[in-house]
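Structure tokens please, single chain.
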Amino acid sequence: MSVKKIEADVIILGGGSAGTFAAIKAKETNPNCRVVVVDKGPIETSGAIGRGMDALNIVSVPGYGTPEDVVEALTKVTEGIIDQECAYVLGRDSLPIIKDLERYTDRKPGDLFPLDKNGNYKCSFLHPTNKALYLAMDGEDIKRGLAREVRKLGCTVLDRTPACRLLTDDNGKIAGIFAFNMRSGDYYQIEAPAVVITAGCVGKFGMPRDGYLSGIYEFPGNTGDGFAMAYHAGAEMVNMECFQTNLLMKDFNGPACGYVVIPRGGYGVNALGKKYWSHGYWSGDMFLAVWREFMEGRGPVYLKLDHLPEETLKGLEKVLWGTERTVRGQFHKQRNEDYHCWDSVEQGMEEITLCSGHSNSGILVNKDTETTVPGLFAAGDCAAVPQQYLTGAFVFGAIAGRMAAEYAARAGRPGAMPNPEQTWQEVSAPLRIDDDKGLPVEQVETKIRTKVSQYLTPPKSDPLMNKMLWWVDR
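Here you go.
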């Protein structure tokens, strides 16, 4: 078995939103830092914002909100299950991140983000508080801008090379990673004292009702491998019983985009055409309200747009059919659906996922992105900073990059690495199926994800969760 060996100072697992920021900030902190970024795809288009993004869902900027307002909003929607220090940092560092994004994408104030008449970034109302904390963005090109900056700074980028195991030394400290290239078949053992996990959420968790394995709300490349690798390395996980339950566009299984529509005047209605909730921000009380509409016979529910001005509808089409999901326009066209009709966007409670960006679950981190494993940092949708969204991926990705570079500079070289062939044997063991027993990977995925949806979709209970575990063991 031939294994390519690389020595580095900081390794970034996942070149998405948080990962690119981590790589950039590691290099800006220490230009001599040897940074290696590994990703399943090319970093120009990988991760949840490969097609760009249309907003930062929670920020604090002058004239609209403060870090304390962010803490208040997130404490409310998480019902108090949150590290408020992390929430404060999210609000405190959102303005510098906005400036960074303009710099990395070569966009001026008022171009990437709108400005108000006073020259402040113009925020809108979305959250269940009286503060405007939502900042729209014309961000189709931001991922390419971030990738360009990563490469310009001299980071080593291994595209189409997913990591499959975190390596630790005899003292439990990070020693590196094991990875392989999906196109060439090359194996990599990369040695480094610091690793930043930015591998996204567990997008493939529940099963969509249409049965398509990759027809999901999240980016289907985010399969939870960051969660699994961190757990295997001994990192503590938190809030894993809290599932992201998505109110999606029914049958399309993509975002209904209430966060795009509601700040522009849209709102949710039931089958009687009546508004059923006061805000559109994902929270337990909002989902309970949706559930009650169905249980009390007022379903289905819709995202109402037909009352909006024509100019607003055209702008929504540009965002929803472009930056969000390019196939959405075709989906509506083939169904003869039109946003001038009040019931053109039917919503449904579809598959569940594990994600801190849109919910609460993930790798336990503090405000400095440190995990419980020395040398391991985490940021983005895999790190448990509840309801952080894209803003949090950027903010904590930046912090993780700085912290990892500083840690690597004082940590020295890692301890002894395990035998790479043994590592690969352990990782690939489930894939080796003999003639008499074993199941194809696709069948295992289908079975487990189907049971996840059947037994773990809220409302939850201990008997249901235990039955799920019984099925997995079986």
